[in-house]
């Protein structure tokens, strides 16, 4: 599974990076950037928590 961030919606609150820093980081513009490779199985639950905690629902995991 991979994480995706809608950059047009992201407000840069850093909640995702705080919840799952192994999958999400912030770029130089203050927008969330997910790792490019598949989410490791042991981080999937944490990545889903980050998705669920996003205040603007800009994260999807597929």
From TrEMBL:
Family matches, as SUPFAM superfamilies: 4Fe-4S ferredoxins (SSF54862)
Pfam family, one: Fer4_15
Origin superkingdom: Bacteria
Residue ranges occupied by any 4Fe-4S ferredoxin-type domain in the UniProt entry: 1-29
A molecular function GO annotation: electron transfer activity
Record key words, sorted: Electron transport, Iron, Iron-sulfur, Metal-binding, Transport
InterPro entries per UniProt: 3Fe4S_ferredoxin, 4Fe4S_Fe-S-bd, 4Fe4S_Fe_S_CS, Fe-S_cluster_ET
Primary role: Ferredoxins are iron-sulfur proteins that transfer electrons in a wide variety of metabolic reactions.
Protein name, as recorded: Ferredoxin
Species of the source: Terrisporobacter othiniensis
């Amino acid at each position: 599974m991979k994480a995706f961030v809608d950059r047009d919606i992201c407000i840069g609150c850093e909640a995702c990076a705080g919840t799952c820093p192994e999958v999400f980081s912030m770029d130089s513009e203050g927008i969330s950037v997910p790792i490019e490779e598949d989410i490791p199985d042991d981080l999937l639950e944490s990545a889903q928590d980050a998705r669920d905690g996003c205040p603007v629902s800009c994260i999807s995991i597929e």
